[in-house]
TrEMBL record, chain A:
Region (Disordered): 1-22
GO MF, any single term: ferric iron binding
Swiss-Prot/TrEMBL keywords: Dioxygenase, Oxidoreductase
Alphabetized SUPFAM superfamilies for the sequence: Aromatic compound dioxygenase (SSF49482)
Example GO BP: 3,4-dihydroxybenzoate catabolic process
Domain Intradiol ring-cleavage dioxygenases per the UniProt entry, residue ranges: 44-227
Protein name: Protocatechuate 3,4-dioxygenase, beta subunit
Residues forming coiled coils: none
Similarity remark: Belongs to the intradiol ring-cleavage dioxygenase family.
Source species, domain of life: Bacteria
Stretches assigned to the Protocatechuate 3,4-dioxygenase beta subunit N-terminal domain: 7-38
Organism encoding this protein: Paracoccus solventivorans
Keyword Oxidoreductase attached: yes
From TrEMBL, chain B:
GO molecular function, one term: ferric iron binding
Keyword vocabulary terms for this entry: Dioxygenase, Oxidoreductase
Organism in which the protein naturally occurs: Paracoccus solventivorans
PANTHER family in alphabetical order: DIOXYGENASE, PUTATIVE (AFU_ORTHOLOGUE AFUA_2G02910)-RELATED, PROTOCATECHUATE 3,4-DIOXYGENASE ALPHA CHAIN
Region (Disordered) residue spans: 122-141
Location of the Intradiol ring-cleavage dioxygenases domain: 60-88
Gene3D superfamilies in UniProt: Aromatic compound dioxygenase
Ligase keyword on record: no
Protein name as catalogued: Protocatechuate 3,4-dioxygenase, alpha subunit
Entry similarity comment: Belongs to the intradiol ring-cleavage dioxygenase family.
Amino acid sequence: MTPAEYYQRDRRLHPPALTPDYKTSVARSPRLSLISLQGSMSEITGPTFGHGDISPIDNDLIKNYAKDGDPIGERIIVHGRVLDENARPVPNTLVEVWQANAGGRYRHKKDSYLAPIDPNFGGCGRTITDDDGYYFFRTIKPGAYPWRNWVNNWRPAHIHVSVFGHAFCQRLITQLYFEGDPLIPICPIVQTIPDADAIDRLTAKLDMNAGVPLDSIAYRFDIVLRGRRSTMFENRLEGN
Amino acid sequence: MKIVDALANRPHYLPETASQTAGPYVHIGLAPGAAGFRIFDRELGWDIAGPNAAGERIRVEGLVIDGSGSPVKDVLIEVWQANAAGIYAHPEGGGEVEDGFRGWGRVITDFETGEWGFDTVKPGPVRARGRMESGVAQRVRDSHPDWQGRAQEDNVPMAPHLNLWIVARGINIGLNTRMYFDDETAANAADPVLNLIEWERRRATLIARRTVRDGTPVYRFDIRLQGEDETVFFDV
């Protein structure tokens, strides 16, 4: 099979490097243009992961750090598919998440917010998508929290999401928000994204049918990674 | 796909999910030990080459420096590299790699100093990108055997390099760059990616300096996010 490139990234759907309302970006943003590369072996390959790399409990944030009970908070399921721009599933790819607890506090030695640490909540998880690109996590809904930017900025409730895909050029870190959160339109980090539809796609939607009655409510969150040009496989056109 | 789109011959693609900053607490998710707690049986990315990899064992160190000249102390860097034979640990990586060689790792900066470093093996030259084109283009070419296209410049192998991906608070979308080796003068001079950088003096921002410490080669690679000698970053 001839190696094939990935579609060029449409950077108009992503935040630019320099976004002055998000102050930390000012000193950390390159000022010169990125040099555009056609895909080479270095970009169309990427690390592979298997079930030997993780443990089955890793996608259950309610249980994976529990000491003497469940963490406090709204019990939720986050689920969806990892797809590519061709709408094909991305199977066997590593999805990692991290988040604050229900009070908006991270279990991190650099977080000094006054909301308490939850002794039963670690706040990170990981899983590998199945053959259909499907993944799920069980967790508690994170709380909003204040951060130093302007004097009184609050992050909307969010879960950080890291995805690999099958090529290093597909690597993506993003944040999942929750439908209906009034902090979304006034958050300087969310609003680094110049495209309103792109923001809407980062907003997980309530999915009543996927919840567990009397136990957990569910949110749906599909993730789209870059797609790849069709390739010739045994003289047959694959994809497209 | 909506039927009306199909009837209109409009190609239909899903838009890529937008990037957001990894934030200050990226370590919780990707390096929880560094955040200060133990949760997973195995953290990923601490061993890039494994015990069986051939080639020269090296260490790579540096700082990430912001536009004020200060070290950035909450960065996470991922590295992706070929083995000493120039092969990536991937189904399309060009062949087999040593057992235990993953070629991928992640490292965080020291919270106090901003210094980062990792141990690995020096990669070999990587084969040329070749004629990497879509199946559609291949069909066109196959029906015109004399069609040459741009094959020439695509047939130059790449000098040994590490692919780096940098995320942190304040970085809205991960920054891709490459680290080359200063003891590969001839290969670097022919490298198709370095040569793509129009400003020759900027190419030096991608070349790490070799020293030897206690018998181990150490390559120094400082990454400057902006300002004088801003590192070259790629849209890959």
